[in-house]
Amino acid sequence: MTRKLLKASTAAAACAVTAVTLAACGTGADGGGDGSSADPSYVSGGTFTVALNDDPGNLSPLTGVSLVQRALVPYAYESLVYTTSDGEALPWLAESWTQTPTSVTYTLKDGVTCSDGSEFTAETAAHNIAYQADGDNGTFWHNSNITEDMTASADGNTLTITSTTKNPFLLTMTGEVEMVCQKGLDDPGSLKDSTDGTALFHLTSLKAGNEYTYTKRTDYTWGPQDVTSETEGLPDTIVGKVVTDESTAANLLLSGGLNAAGVAGTDRDRLESAGLESQGVPNPIGEMLFNERSDRPTADERVRQALTVALDRASVGDLVTNGHVEEMTSLVVQSPFLCVAGGPKWTLPDPDAERAGELLDEAGYTVGSDGMRAKDGTPLTIRFLYDAGTPSHAAAAEEVQAEWKEIGVDTELVAEDPTGWSTDLYQSYDWDTGFIQLAPGTPVVLSLFFLGDTSEQGGYNFMDVQNTAYNDLATQAMSAPDADAACDLWQSAEKELVDRVDVYPLAQTTSPTFFTGATADVPWGIAPTTIRMLG
Fold first, then answer.
1. Whose CA is closest to 55, among 203, 208, 252, 261?
2. What are the φ/ψ torsions at residue 491 (nearest 5 degrees)?
3. Cα 383 off chain centre by
4. What is the value of pTM for the model shown?
5. How far apart are CA 112 and CA 118, in angstroms?
6. Residues whose CB falls within 8 Å of the CB of residue 413, separated by 6 or more in sequence, listed in order
7. Which H helix or E strand runs over 104?
8. Rounded Cα gap, residues 97 and 248, in angstroms
9. Between 313-320 and 391-405, two packed helices, what is the crossing angle to 10 degrees?
10. d(CA 97, CA 80)
11. What is the chain's pLDDT, residue by residue, as a tens digit (535 residues)?
12. In Å, what is the CA distance from 223 to each residue of 39, 151, 326?
């Protein structure tokens, strides 16, 4: 799987270990979950088996940070608002809402209950927001969707969330936070290996390292798009099966041992040739970040510019995406895709090896008799990280190494495993660049990694980026009077990151989830209420 950085909370090092992504992890859909009309090929009941590319370990929606952990959260927990793949907000636990620049008021649906039969109330929803707003709890959504300046109160079935500052995205940010029932909030530790939510499914058994079984409730009536326990085509059971090897997952799909699996490597072509249906999500697999600490060569903007302009973007992009290359048009690459439309404002320079050499000369890295560059007797060596578990990364990294050698740059390639990612990015800081991706769903989430304290200071900025132009625009955007003004500022801020080469959006692809014997919508991960078994 590709190494994407997820939520950098108090477990910042753990985020790098699993290549976590701070994405909007909502469970929206395009309409496949509409319970009002059923496809004649739908067959109710049975078991839907989905591959997990790692063992989740911790099932808590409050603190789980890895991709596989977040993929399991929606099977047992729900949000106030249901966000479709195109960003439309639909009722879920809340039946309606009103907004002001500093508040959002939700009216909750009647009759919502937890999996143990207890009532889910607006008061419990307010307790969820308060828990997420408290930085001492180190939750997944803290400081991304729920900030310390937010407070929540309940009055009957009405929940009001207030921010002390203007926030044009208050509905989107608060509406997608998964709600935990009161018993789970009272004992957060219990959520590591059990569930306490309002969802259509709930955890009924687990075998750590092997499989996680969720069973459909019989009393569920409040699903998005009118989904209930009686909606035709729903499975009775969902099994998350740990399958760490993509080739094995592909074989199980073809043999009927799995109903769904994400396969993005070389086996992707094999499954497509076999006629399996798939749904994809954007994956910024070729995105490059840079270590800008003062002791690294990439602290010099001219070096960063030289390294990127020296690359044949088409060749490297083709390799890193295994022939499925797409151009990146935003640094926001996940649902709900806030502030993506109409962009980008940035453009990438054409490859120019001669210009790359000039930039390195200006930075003091001159060519020696051996054709390699050095400054004050120190060779210019770039430590380039890539994911050992992503099949296409190695070939693309070797192409980068060859192209940089042509301009006199020595490249040390480092194939990272989970421990290596954690050590290099968050402990030793011994890296310069590499295929390291962020996959946010909003520019607010993106800003956590570029705006503010470094990871040494307890912040999210593990690259030590100090881009004052970006910081100024981002600060303005956070208190913009409306969404249009905010998005214009966010796109301008994004341009500053790309122009200064704090990030290089080399290429992205669409990572598919393949299906057999079933179908579902995949806005980020599989949306459980949209799963339909096929006859």
1. 208
2. -70, -35
3. 25
4. 0.81
5. 9
6. 384, 386, 397, 398, 401
7. strand 103-108
8. 46
9. 160
10. 10
11. 333 444 333 332 223 222 333 333 333 334 344 444 567 799 999 999 999 988 998 999 999 888 789 999 999 999 999 987 777 889 999 999 999 989 999 999 999 999 999 999 999 999 999 999 999 999 989 988 999 999 999 999 999 999 998 888 899 899 999 999 999 999 999 999 999 999 999 999 999 999 999 999 999 999 999 999 999 999 999 999 999 999 999 999 999 999 999 998 789 999 999 999 999 889 999 999 999 999 999 999 999 999 999 999 999 999 999 999 999 999 999 878 889 999 999 999 999 999 999 999 999 999 999 999 999 999 999 999 999 888 899 999 999 999 999 999 999 999 998 789 889 999 999 999 999 999 888 898 899 899 878 989 888 899 999 999 999 999 999 888 888 999 999 999 999 999 999 999 999 999 899 999 999 998 878 999 999 999 8
12. 18, 27, 35
Q: What pairs with residue 454 in β-bridges?
A: 461
At what angle are helices 353-362 and 301-309 packed, to 10 degrees?
Answer: 160
Q: Do you know the residue count of the chain?
A: 535
- Report which of 301, 313, 306, 343 is spatially closest to residue 505, judged by C-alpha positions: 313
Cβ neighbours, 10 Å, residue 50: 27
Domains and CATH numbers, the chain: 4-282+511-533 (3.40.190.10), 287-507 (3.10.105.10)
Tokens standing for residue 29: 């859909």
Q: Residue 72, SS3?
A: helix
Surface-to-core class of residue 479, CB atoms within 10 Å of its CB (0-12 exposed, 13-18 middle, 19+ buried):
middle
Are 194 and 203 in contact, with CB atoms under 8 Å apart?
yes
Nearest to residue 4, comparing CAs of 292, 387, 396, 491?
387
What gap in Å lies between CA 238 and CA 243, rounded to an integer? 15
Which residue from 503, 474, 192, 509 is spatially nearest to 324, judged by alpha carbons? 509
263 SS3 class: coil
CB-based contact 501:348 (threshold 8 Å): no
52 CB-near residues (< 8 Å, 6+ apart): 68, 71, 72, 212, 240, 241, 242, 243
Rounded to the nearest angstrom, the gap between the alpha carbon of residue 141 and the centroid of all alpha carbons in its chain is 12
Pairing type for strands 150-155 and 366-367 reads unpaired
Whether residue 502 contacts residue 314, with contact meaning beta carbons closer than 8 Å, is answered with: no
DSSP string, 430-464: ---EEE-EE--SSHHHHHTTTSS-BGGGTSSBTT-
8-state DSSP, 508:
B
Neighbouring residues of 467: CB distance < 8 A, sequence distance ≥ 6:
450, 496, 497, 500, 502
Distance CA 113, CA 188 (A): 19
Does residue 49 sit in helix, strand or coil? strand
In the DSSP assignment, the letter for residue 226 is: G
DSSP state of 142: B
